Amino acid sequence: MSKKKTKYKRRYDSLPTVLLFVLPALIPLIVFWIYPILRSIYLSFTNWDYISPTYKIVWFKNYASLFRNPRFYEALWHTVVFTAGTLFPTIILGLILALLLVKNFRGSGIVKFILFSPWITPTVAISIVWSWIYKVDGGIANTILTNLGMSPLKWINSSDTAMLSVIIVTIWKSLGYSMIFYLSALERVPGELYEAGALDGAFGWRQFVDITLPSISPTTFFLSIITMVNSLQAYDQIQVLTQGGPAGSTRTLLYMYYQLGFQEFNMGQATAVAVVMIILTAGLSLIQFKVSEKWVHY
Amino acid sequence: MAEIILKNITKEYENGFQAVKNINLEIKDNEFVILVGPSGCGKSTTLRMIAGLEDISEGDLYLDGNRINDVPPQNRDIAMVFQNYALYPHMTVYQNIAYSLKIKKVPKDEIDRRVKEVAASLGLTELLDRRPGQLSGGQKQRVAMGRAIIRHPKAFLMDEPLSNLDAKLRGQMRVEIADLYQRLNTTFIYVTHDQTEAMTLGTKIVVMKDGEIQQTDSPTNLFNYPVNKFVAGFIGTPAMNFFDAECAEEDGRVVLRTADGMISLPEEKAARLKEGGWLGKTVSAGIRPEHVRLCTEAEAAFKGTVSVFELLGSNAIIYVQCGDQRIIMNTDETDRQEYGSEVCLKPLAEKLHIFDPETERTITN
Amino acid sequence: MNTRYSDKRSLPVRVLSLLGKILILGTASIFTAFPFIWMIISSLKTKAEILNTDIFLPTSPQWSNITGIIFNSPIPKYIFNSAWVSLVIVALQIVTGAMLAYALVFLKFRTNKLLFTIVMGTYMLPVAATYIPSYIILADWHMLDSFRGLIISSTVSIFGIFLLRQGFMQIPKGLVEAARMDGASHWRALWEIVCPMTKSSFITFGLMNFISTYNNYMWPSLITKTSDYFLVSQGLRAFFIRDGAYGTEWALVMAASAVVVVPLLVLFAFTQKWFINGIGGETGIKG
Fold first, then answer.
1. pTM for the whole thing?
2. Distance between CA B231 and CA B209 in Å, rounded?
3. Fewer Cβ within 10 Å of end Cβ, chain B: N or C?
4. Minimal Cα distance from B156: which residue of C?
């Protein structure tokens, strides 16, 4: 570090210090995140089958066959249904529960504990429990339905209800998470806002729409992105409950990726699906960011 | 022991903004240097560059003859008192004061001895087990100073240390800092925007504006011989009165023609104006409020009406509106002047400051 | 909501809304708690009882189901595997995450913003997209089917970096500067000043990442094939589908699930406030 005459080349913290602090995280980040993403993109242009030592660049052949494959569109549609089917209930129900729980009362701590507890338990364990609940003969879900005078369902054993079953488990699991986020957001809405609103005559529903909703809009925005990303990546519950079946009715893009990559070893096709997922996630996030400019008030 | 030299120091940010422009400053051992100026003048940036908290874009910084541009702050052996005290909230007062010694691996019993010594000298002995959250502003201030003192650093830097205190406490702490300086015999560099602090504490004052040093001088010289209009206006309260006047020669004497009369100048000032070829031209003149006198109509340089009268006890401030111009007068004649009453004013000619209206630099000092 | 006024609605309306509140919260609680309760009830039933839909509670609790799992099954080993692998991973994640977050907040260097953008971007990407190349890397390093492979591929938590960064940004810059003036290196400033001041962020980080690593399924199940290296989720699933027979031993499967889940619920009961405050409060989502 000799005399620095060149402007903008100077730095205040010496390079060794910066590297010391950055590299321990940056190296793994590059090796297990950034490089794999780039590598996935590269592999999606090849016909590699994992076993053969050599492979050819086939350019867009993987994508072309993917886009001609009805299974792909099925999986895409399932992904959309699954994401929408988990995103909206999780957020809306989470907000309703948070609104009811924001004022402490006797027992509110226990209710919060119960509602959040699914989130800390392994998805595999609770999915196994749910598959027992969903059991067509002798499962408690059907027992309850029969006792209520309704006809029993085939749950995860029918392509008509399998997706619904998986969605129910996912909502059950993630509801507490969104509730907790909303709780702390509601607690931080400044009391003066309500007082000012009250002076302007805002009570009840008006108060909720005009004051509460705008104040918690950043949380709604954040939750919708997180829930969306989580839903796009849901694997554990599908693997345990349905393995993508019956008849592919719960096969999402991620599950298709898993089957192509780790069951069929069609790495080119699998990484092509991965790239589609990356683009989908990035695109949806971008849209949310754009839309959020209109309704998120920081 | 510390001699600090700033040579052509410039601070330029990535966006091209120059916070400090090519400043030169020599700080001798045991000086109490004040960096003073309006906010955004670069005084804090300068201090932070000396501390090592801000990098130096151009120029050289020397501490006892060694260039320290690239020495990280922890190796400069300089202590700093921050504006918001920056006490560690999770440590007790004792731990806060002892932290720097702990880092230096000073033996425990010596740390203990020194902490107690410093605490006693600052009246903190009772508070050693408290945490910063339980202290008042003045106590926090003392802890922050204790943390700096205990290290016996080469120099003390203070960044607006009193700005978070109320007026009464500020006066009290000012005296304590002055006392500290007398006891410690070390170099102090002190940043403030408050010119009272500057005048009362400093042995050398550096007035800055827009990243440039305007004047470096002793408090008395700064007050009596400001080099330009900015310094003249910045130092002293109430601020100096400025007015435009025409320089003329009348009956062989050099005079200033003002709106309502004229002022004849003492010989030395007259000579300067003559040499500078100012006769017949308009100059910018300044007079401190304490050098304005009430006078008879014949002597008057200004005539106006009293708009505000502030009695401060032993003295009074009178605001006089003279046409477009407001002249402020600081007088010990404390007889109440009624609002709206007509008065005549004259400046003490020997106390006049005369500036070039273009460059705003002094002509007569 | 911090409304501080008396409720001006009429009595019947207030009673109705209270009943509605109890109804909704009660239903939600029962719906949420039921699978856990049913899991525990089922785990105590005999083979005959469990298939008989008319029996809700076991006639006499079959504690041997539970002790069988604890003493005569690989489940405790999987729990142990999960616990220690998660501890190591979280410890590494805390160190790497704290250092990177410190660099992002307190160090000045030209690529600071770029670095943050990269980290931020990675947060939004589907992790699964990295699995195939990561798998290949571990295969090349001969680390498939080993604890080493599990640990080395998870030494960074992007969520954790965000959480800590958010906490660090609350600290006045002057404090770190004061520490530097006191002679502390950045390393000391991080662990002696910044870390104690953001203790709650660290605790939340540790707990949340411990839980999610402990429960992790997809990635560990892709890279480990030998039951010696199974984490608990994979082990439980293997136990569930062993001998290719689903649902022949439901009571035992429920007992195994209970043995896995109940300790986590207990851990959660004691650490609840860190999750609740940490998730909503310190991830820095304003509003």
1. 0.84
2. 9
3. N
4. C181
